[in-house]
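Q: What does the assembly look like in three dimensions?
Context provided by user:
Components: two
Sequences:
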Amino acid sequence: MTAILEAVDLHKSFGPTPALDGAGLSLHAGEVVAVMGPSGSGKSTLLHCLAGILTPDTGTVRYRDALLSSMSDTRRSDLRRTDFGFVFQFGQLVPELSCLENVALPLRLGGVKRRAAEARAREWLERLEVADVAAKRPGETSGGQGQRVAVARALVTGPRVVFADEPTGALDSLNGERVMQLLVTAARDTNAAVVLVTHEPRVAAYSDREVVVRDGRSRETEFAR
Amino acid sequence: MKSWTSDLLLGVRLALGGGRTSWARLALTAVGIGIGVALLLTASSVPTILSARDRHQAENQPITGENTPRALLETPWVTEYRGTPISGSFVEATSPTSPVPPGLTRLPGDGEIFLSPALAALLASPEGALLRDRFPQQVVGKITEPGLMAPNDLRFVAGDSSLDPSSATSVTGYGGQPDEIAQDPVLTLLIMVGMVALLFPVLVFVGVSTRLAAAQRDRRLSALRLVGAGAHRVRRIAAGESLLGALAGLATGTALFLVARRFVEHVELLGLSVFVGDLTPAVAPTVLLVVLVPVLAVATSLIAMRRTVIEPLGVVRQTKPTRRVLWWRVIPLILGVTALVTQDGALYGSFGTTAQVIVVAGLTLTLLSIPLLLPWLVERAVSRLNVGPPSWQLAIRRLQLESGTAARVVAGVAVVLAGAIALQSIMLSAQSRVAQSPGTAGDRSHLAVHLNNGTPDTAATLLGILDRTVGKDNLLTLRSTSIVVAKNQFHSLYTGTCDALRTLGELPSCQDGDAFQIPEQGGSPFPAAGTEVTVTTTPQSLEGTTWTIPRNTIVRHAEHNYSSGLLLTPQALGTLEIAPTSITVVVTVDPSNQDTAEQVRNATAPLTWRTHTSYEGDLPPTNQAKQFASIRKALLAGSLLTLVLASASLLVLALEQVRERRRPLAVLAATGVPKSTLATSLLLQNALPLLLALATGVAVGGETASLLVRITAEPPTLDWAGIAIMTTAAALLTLAVTALTLPSLNRATAATGLRAE
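A: Here is the predicted structure of the complete assembly.
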């Protein structure tokens, strides 16, 4: 099976500090991969390089045979809107917009009319069991509700890859479990692949396989769930 | 185009959608921009005010003609009340169709008077009690706007059936041409420098206001980048946000202007006042303003975003921004200085439109360099500072992480300072060049009462009145006439006792028979002693009698002479006879009690136009000096308004600084950091950039001032005392404004503050 996203021999430094030192990863359609490792190991940097947010100093990232580093900023932005979805620990929702508007935002940026975009956004909010906060602003919701809204926003465009960086990091275990269940179920339903950065084995347990990053290098561990 | 519109609208939606926080930010931006817009609208009204004044002046200019059957006889009269002049005229109709002066509904009959609203209000007030005796006529109406130059004009038109047709002006109508006064190029330069120095800071504050809460906005835009908005798109969205702020600012500014305008007639700033109708912005500058403010807001926002390159990771990582570069920031300074250097001494050449444009452009570029250089300078300076006490450490580390906001806050003050230094230096130059005859205040202990075209009866009446009012011992009488030197060239001749003559000049030794000559500074040469001259029988006449200037005439060059001319004791007159009607009675008054002079003026009021009073030695200013005085007043009034704007804008910016930082401030307070440490840290965060801003302002202002003075071909001199006062004032202003943010800091650090965050 051909990988839809593949990173090879990535090197990335911030000033004198190396973050990635030959890391790599391949991702197939519909699979959930957990990227694990201690704090400062480079797992978030790897995710950012995979998503085209950061450009590696050396090495290549290919998405469906296209080299991300050779794409223009506009093309990478388009990709983030149409093919990728993001769930971070916090902060990714626009505080000025309501939850419904936040979820509809990627669709509206893609040219979908407001009414249609909000109808689809409402469906996703219902699916993630947060339809009741649709009219509220992110600041008025609980942490768990906010993360489910973020998941809805990540999935509303029908992305091929969802990047989740510590998605349950700011949640209690019960809420964390529920968010993970909803994220993975929804991703599998839409055949989206998920790159899941976490240091919690409990969260990593939702993945099909694990990649461990240590000192900027990655080591793949394949196992059957 | 559709995507542009939708992006701009999304920006507007983001600016509005954040609940109280967004509204507070928008309100602060609107107020910050609005104050500037209100001031710019006022400045845009200056052409209308000036043309209205010209129109009023022209409409009130009498058209005179001799032997006209329906003429209105008019004799102007100026009196003074506690240092303020009151002007008007006595009129007498020669026919029922005699012209009516502008602003009057009809001609006043004998014993009737029309008063300006300001004079009527003064007479009705307790302060005007002493003035009431001077206008005993029956008030029959008010002079309306067409008959006045300004709402605070103290003016009257009184009917008097005893006017002297030989001396009164025959007015056939109103609406002549006002006197054209050629303007000195240094005054043109002064106006140009004034406009740039006062208005440019306003634009800087407008630009800075659009950058309020930039950090929050950057995070918001990063979130948009994360969900796939391209860089161009994010810029358009940001432009939409700025546009809304600018439009809200325009609306707020217009509202502020319209509200303030309603009360403008009740406001007097340094003696200047304007009619509501005249405070109307001219079309061209208003259109420019309406276009410029949004363009400036959007441009400032886009230029600022070039540096802040909104990246998707802004939501999760707030990395240290890249260091500022210097090279492009010095370009405006180099261009500005070059432009001003090329105009060295230009004022004595053809100071035409091109030169004026170059000077304005040079000055604007030089001032523009301050807000550009300051962020770089602050960044470099604080990066070298080391840690100290906790408050210092908090302030330094904050500035090292992000000094842009603090630099922006004080940049406006530095521009105001530099502009004020440049303006002050040009004003000094203009003063020494144009205002050499600013008019001198005479001896306040001698009030001279002059009799105009008197008759023996009026002379006797005047002496009788003054005798009864102040007593004989306080009266000295002078008679005067003129010596004709050539056509339209006269010298004054006074005669009186030694004591009376001493009120005209310093005469250490004097006895009857002495004659003194006091040359007029810069005047035509005085005929030498022993020369035969013609002495007019009445002051206005060219005819006269031949007379020889006494050989014993002593020339006096004392510095404190109040009058110039020939001063003769009675015996020195010889056979010369001077009409007893050309008299001036010098009344000794107590200079510490102004009301004595008012009582004298009141006592002579029944003689109306036949007398006028002045302090001995009072010299009226020249026309150019009057122009200079008006421009100076207007510029000082403008400076005051700019200072008010600077204070208000500073306060808005400082409050926003606290608001933006309330989360870390609340956390620090919750972890036990004393409020005094936080307050000191906040003060230091403004004080350190302020020191650099003041240094930059003084350096750029001083250099600009030197270059501007060189344009007038005068040696560059700086008023260091003035610079020190302005610098201290700017420093105190900023510190006072920072102190005003302390209540806001208290709220942010209150126990409930952290819970809210």
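Follow-up: The interface with chain A takes residues 3, 6, 10, 13-19, 21-22, 219-220, 223-233, 311-313, 315-316 of chain B (CB under 8 Å).
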